[in-house]
Amino acid sequence: MNDDGRADYFDSLYHAAAVVGLNTSALVEAAIVDRPVFTILEPKFRDNQEGTFHFQHLMTVGDGFLNTARTLAEHVEQLATLAAGGTARRNGPFVEQFIRPRGLAMAATPVFVDAVETLAAAGPVPARQTPVWVYALRPLVLALVVAGRVPWLERMYWNPAKFRQLASA
Question: How far apart are the C-alpha atoms of 45 and 40, rounded to whole Å?
Answer without folding.
Answer: 9
